[in-house]
């Protein structure tokens, strides 16, 4: 049973009443998460009238209050523990300066224990969005910065709607030569925790979308692209395209290429190696309605299947952004394990069976099993320190990627056709398919997904335009 809101407010009121001036000290609000600092004679906080501190008795009450907040079941989803210590200490200082300290504390304790979702918005690097801003589900939006994006963000409601003017100002004040692509989302966390959750959500969105994309070639999404093209929060991740445009002086471009000196038996060479900008056309990837639905389910409705997609997507991206073929092979192997493996661990034979059983056609399963066996043997050789030239063969990594993407979509089909709602359901479904006591329904909705995969393969071979199929998997609220 959690500590009552009233008790926490009482503790903070006691701490607030002991706040005194601390002349000659150097305030360090964030440092109050350290017991040795907050209990030292030099511990101090900022206030309107200069440095202040609490008495030992006040600090004791303050510590009990913060620990009570952190003991709440959902606190880990809302607050970063280190940050919360300084935030609550600042709350006490602000309460001491308020006209009615107790009312101030009561209002803010409610926010600490049950905060409303936070809106987070940031520019992203290495992403193309050649489309109007788009609402993804009910808690995410993406598009080029501007008034149109602010309008879409406002549709998320709550704090997002109230913050429309702030979002517009944010978009206009970024100082970019061209409007950057921005991602906005509502998250349960606050302050630093909110940013962590939002940045991870964006990464998961991209990772899972790339895992499920069945038309990577036309979207210019190639294996081992190198980390310099990885999408991420702009500023933390370099946007090479923006830097390239912004650097007008010829000598400034030196930051975008490397020029190693090589002396060998042939002679000496010092050539420029240019790592070009190749952003992900996320608007085109998410134009596939089935894919977008699956991505949103992975973000917001993570049942046993969609949790696997999220983990697999993370490792699939590691392969894309790696510049080393061995590393990419290992990452793809982990992605495939995440899709078809079990928490208890499975031998290679059982993994091969599961991969084959994802195929609805029994006549094709032996071929699937051989494909898995070939991929697993190469991955296993690398993982155990061996060397193989197979990874350097043309199309090997791309072929491995296609098998992982196929397995991901077949798991989505299994979720649809067998109503998978738990890990136990998934295990029993694989067992029933193995023993023949169950089979893929010929007219199941999962067959629509198979048809989509077949159409995309045929379209690719015929070089025709690709269009999303009509199979809707349910957009999460």
Short description:
The chain has 20 helices and 13 strands. By secondary structure, it is an alpha+beta fold.
Shape: globular
Q: Helical stretch count?
A: 20
Portion of residues within helices:
40-55%
Q: Give the distance, in angstroms, between the N- and C-terminal Cα atoms.
A: 31 Å
Low-confidence stretches: 461-477
Based on secondary structure, the structural category is: alpha+beta
- Please give the order of strands in the largest beta sheet: 5-6-7-3-8
Radius of gyration: 27 Å
The amount of beta strand, in percent, is 5-15%
Q: How would you explain this protein's 3D organization?
A:
The protein has 20 helices and 13 strands. It has 477 residues and is α+β, with helices and mostly antiparallel strands. A hairpin with a 3-residue loop joins strand 5 (134-136) and strand 6. Helix 1 (5-17) crosses helix 5 (81-97) and helix 16 packs antiparallel against helix 17 (365-383). The radius of gyration is 27 Å and the shape is globular. Residues 461-477 have low confidence and may be disordered.
């Amino acid at each position: 049973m959690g500590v009552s809101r009233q008790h926490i407010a009482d503790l903070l009121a006691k701490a607030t009443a002991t706040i005194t001036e601390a002349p000659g000290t150097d305030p360090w609000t964030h440092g109050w998460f350290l017991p040795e600092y907050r209990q030292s004679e030099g511990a101090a906080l900022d206030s309107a009238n200069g440095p202040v501190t609490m008495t030992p008795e006040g600090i004791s009450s303050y510590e009990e209050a913060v620990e009570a907040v952190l003991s709440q079941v959902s606190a880990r989803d809302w607050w970063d523990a280190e940050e919360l210590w300084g935030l609550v200490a600042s709350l006490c200082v602000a309460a001491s300066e308020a006209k009615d300290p107790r009312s101030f504390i009561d209002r803010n304790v409610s926010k600490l224990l049950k905060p409303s979702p936070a809106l987070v918005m940031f520019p992203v690097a290495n992403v193309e969005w050649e489309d109007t801003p788009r609402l993804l589900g009910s808690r995410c939006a993406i598009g080029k910065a501007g008034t149109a994006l602010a309008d879409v963000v406002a549709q998320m409601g709550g704090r997002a709607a109230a913050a429309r003017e702030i979002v517009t100002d944010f978009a206009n004040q970024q100082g970019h030569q061209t409007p950057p692509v921005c991602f906005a989302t509502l998250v349960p966390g606050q302050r630093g925790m909110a940013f962590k959750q939002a940045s991870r959500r964006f990464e998961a969105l991209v990772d899972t979308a790339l895992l499920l994309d069945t038309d990577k070639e036309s979207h210019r999404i190639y294996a081992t692209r190198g980390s310099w093209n990885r999408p991420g929060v702009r500023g933390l991740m370099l946007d090479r395209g923006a830097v390239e445009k912004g650097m007008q002086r010829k000598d400034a471009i030196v930051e975008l290429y490397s020029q190693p000196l090589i002396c060998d038996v042939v002679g000496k060479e010092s050539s420029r190696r240019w790592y070009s900008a190749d952003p992900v056309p996320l608007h085109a990837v998410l134009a596939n309605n089935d894919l977008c639905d699956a991505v949103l389910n992975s973000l917001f409705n993570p049942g046993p299947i969609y949790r696997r997609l999220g983990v697999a997507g993370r490792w699939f991206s590691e392969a894309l952004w790696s510049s080393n073929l061995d590393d990419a092979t290992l990452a793809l192997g982990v992605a495939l394990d995440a899709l078809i493996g079990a928490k208890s661990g499975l031998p290679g034979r059982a993994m091969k069976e599961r991969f084959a059983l994802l195929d609805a056609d029994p006549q094709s399963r032996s071929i699937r099993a051989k494909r898995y066996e070939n991929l697993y043997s190469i991955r296993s050789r690398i993982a155990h320190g061996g060397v193989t030239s197979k990874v350097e063969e043309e199309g090997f990594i791309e072929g491995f990627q296609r098998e992982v993407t196929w397995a991901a979509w077949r798991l989505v089909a299994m979720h649809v056709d067998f109503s998978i709602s738990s890990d136990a359901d998934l295990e029993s479904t694989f067992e029933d398919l193995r023993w023949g006591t169950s089979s893929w329904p010929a007219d199941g909705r999962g067959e629509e997904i198979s048809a989509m995969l077949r159409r995309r393969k045929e379209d690719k071979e015929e070089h025709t335009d690709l269009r999303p199929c009509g199979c809707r998997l349910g957009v999460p609220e």
